[in-house]
Amino acid sequence: MSAFFEYYKIFYYVAKTGNITKAARLLEVTQPSVTKSIHGLENQLGCRLFVRSKKGVFLTREGRLLFQKIQPACELIFSAEDDLEAIRKMQSGIMRIGANELTFTSWLLPHIKAFKRRFPDVRIKIENLSSGSVPDVLTGGAIDFAVLSSPVIDGQRREYPGLDVKFVEQFQDIAVCGQEYFYLTGRTMKLHEFTELPLVSMPEGASTRIFYNELFEKHKLIFKPDIELSSVDQITRAIRESLGVGFIPESVAADGIRDGSLRKLELEEEIPIRYNCIISVRNNPPGMAAQEFIRQFDDVRHYTERE
Fold this sequence. Notes:
Radius of gyration: 30 Å
Distance between the termini: 54 Å
Strand order of the largest sheet: 10-14-9-13-11-12
Mean pLDDT: 88
């Protein structure tokens, strides 16, 4: 079938140019091979397709009928090949990413910016995603990959059956407070004291919430926020306004600590290191643009379940 399509492809170019030499040049093959293919197609179809003239070749009646029928199909195939070539060269295409708000703000955004500098013609679509919906959204093909902060307690990471998890960055959360709670600073607090304070955190289902539910449970405590907000920026602002205390990435808290609107609360218990990770379907690789994006982290240390 593929060899037969080559006949039609060569026939298309000869008919389009009206010249065997020009067709051979466009196809990057020799003139004798074009002539041979045309003869082969004529033998297959049992009729003559071209008539030679001093100016080149022109179609017979049968040749014109064949060209009318195959021209749209050939041009559609050539267009598809051109589209795929543009995607391969990163001159087109779309990358669909699922991310939670924390990873988008604290990790993904600068990498997207750098990627767009390299490949400005690739479109990017980012969908807000909770950790619980990752398997269904990924296996359903709605996104190429997910970027999440994975809950890790005692070195045990959350498992995603059938999915590949690439750990690309570690980060540290700290406890912080606004001005009305500055009296808590200057000493080392214990985790149980936070159960007696108004807490600001993510809602149930968010990876951050899962992380702190498990951390407090490990210490036989219940993590019960008084205020639940859907983004780390909202949580940071709420803490800065002294609506409560909370836990946010150290990098996110840095500006507030520098300008004096936030202070770090020292904690006796250790808050485990957290990890940003890229999650994709094991047996169904993402699109070429997404593969290129993920490939830039191949040299990043992949954090294992136990370190």
